[in-house]
Amino acid sequence: MAFTMHSHSGQFCPGHAKDQLEDIVQHAIRIGYKTMGLTEHMPRTELSDLYPEELESDPHASLAELAPRHSSYLVEAQRLQKKYADQIHILIGIEGEWIRPAYGDIVKAHTEPACIDYFLGSVHHTAGVPIDFDKVHYARARDAAGGSEELLYEKYYDEQLEMLRTLKPRVVAHFDLIRLLSDEPARPLQAWAGGRVWDKVVRNLEFVASYGGWLECNTSALRKGLDEPYPARPIAEEWLRAGGKFTFSDDSHGIAQVATNYARGLDYLESLGVKEVWTLERAPHPGTSGEVKAALTKKSVPIAEFRASLRLE
Questions:
Q1: What transmembrane ranges does the database entry give (predicted)?
Q2: What range does the domain containing 75 cover?
Q3: Which of 13, 172, 192, 247 could form a disulfide with 17 if both were Cys (CB 3.0 to 4.6 A apart)?
């Protein structure tokens, strides 16, 4: 039973994603997905939080478009959930943005609608600067964190802990996103910076495990040029030692990225000794009982079963 718990469309994430959401859902059905988590980005609230692509023409207009676009996403997601209910189990979620502590209440407010099943806990900014956009912004984040990659990593994991403590997300997205644009993304963390970075990694993993959250094995790291999915092997091994569970995601930003590198991602999990990944099942499906959220059941999917349902070209 193949699935993703993290996906985006060009319809509701214009600029760095492609394709209409319905076209993406149809493609997911064709290649064998049985469950699909829709997780468009929640709106940001300040001009300073916009990405360069959103600042190019009219920043104020870009900011003003975010909330109405998000409302349209929720309407369309519910329509698709109903239309394709006999072909795919659609979960409706959002990718929560943690830029500063004030975003805690903003994320919570955007998870309140009855149609929302879950959200991804994500950190794309450190010291208020995007860390995964390009090398220029990564360098700015490093400088804002104190001038070294060690301090940037420490700041990232401290801000991630703030997010985790405040929101306790069911799914923690791309746990070690900070390594994407690092000068040395495969750097062993255990002895780096006197062990301070690794201690923060372990601290955060233990906290997620304490409340029963999941880490996603996110294969987008592979298409972006990294050797391993998020999280990297030492972190994944520590997560498993803590008793943690993995869900699975392509973090697709269009049809071309649906299930990209899934075989490699599943191989990676199996090399760690993982035999199952976890997803959610909602009741009722589709829809909700009035303003009451759907009940969610955790569902284990053996990796062998996951592989068998994929129809990759």
A1: none
A2: 2-309
A3: 13
